[in-house]
């Protein structure tokens, strides 16, 4: 895939030695992955930390999180944590970096720290697209804390979305699913809505007596609104046995379809055979039947579209984009993917409560139109 984000990059001479390195970052509203690789695709170190989304932390807060992770990664790799630049190319792809001003502000702040001879700052959808396809174009839809989409045509045209939350018509991130779960639980409790196991599962998650107590705690700011994101996992745990939970997941699927269709239509790709890559912890955790429903919905607009859940996490895409910038060949990229896949899988295995369902279901794929010659 050709290097992206020339509009966001500041380039210097990229070193042409075996010691050249890639710094890759995928950051979001819950976690941040940072990796250092050498020019052969060998993983030198991989670290995971908390959220780094600028909407929550601001530019200074985001840079502070990334600087701390970079120092840890450099130390783990046996490098001087104060060495600058640490890499020939730095690829920083973060959720919440949606507008040109967002890109410029973050890039300017990081450029002053001289992390890489070549610096690219962009949105995490770019990392997901590269993680899910080697073709260099297609559509990526991510559902993490929020929801977002990127469409990229073969000629370089882009379809992007504001991704500001409800004010820009967004629905489908973990926070939206969690809020829907709480609302359904409260309505079941006071008689306005149908019975649902969420009525007991939601308060049980927070150790409270009933849904009304959870709603009151959120209203009084005793329970941070951000923690409602945790309820997405509760919904996914019961969606195969509860009609209300299933309806929430159907709405999620419908929103994913709406994003993908919009991107494909805006780029005139409905008659092409684009890869549509799905990712983020929600879409890596839903059942195969949900992925199939999404594929069918996208197929109504683009029958030849190939819909799949990314086999790798976005940090892999960020690393591959960095290696692309160095002119790495397919073998180097394959080594980087394999080693980073192993590193992220080990984190999932170490935290089964948080990542077990995602690990179990991430291989689910769907196709807008079955191929008899596949």
Notes on the structure:
Helix content is 44%, strand content 16%. It is α/β, with parallel strands linked by helices. It has a domain at 6-134 and 312-361: Nucleotidyltransferase, domain 5 (2-Layer Sandwich), CATH 3.30.420.40. The chain has a five-stranded mixed sheet with strand order 3-2-1-4-5, sandwiched between helices.
CATH topology of the domain at 6-134 and 312-361: Nucleotidyltransferase, domain 5
CATH superfamily of the domain at 6-134 and 312-361: ATPase, nucleotide binding domain
What helical percentage do the residues reach?
40-55%
Strand-residue fraction? 15-25%
Q: Major sheet: order of its strands?
A: 3-2-1-4-5
CATH class of the domain at 6-134 and 312-361: Alpha Beta
Which class of secondary structure composition applies to the elements?
Answer: alpha/beta
Low-confidence parts lasting 5 or more residues at pLDDT below 50? Answer: 1-18, 353-374
Radius of gyration: 21 Å
Order of helices and strands: EEEHEHEHEEEHHHHHEHEHHH
Characterize the largest beta sheet: strand count, sense, and whether it forms a barrel. 5 strands, mixed
Structure summary, number of beta strands? 10
**Do you know the CATH architecture of the domain at 6-134 and 312-361?**
2-Layer Sandwich
Supply the number of helical segments: 12
State the end-to-end CA separation.
23 Å
Note the overall shape: globular
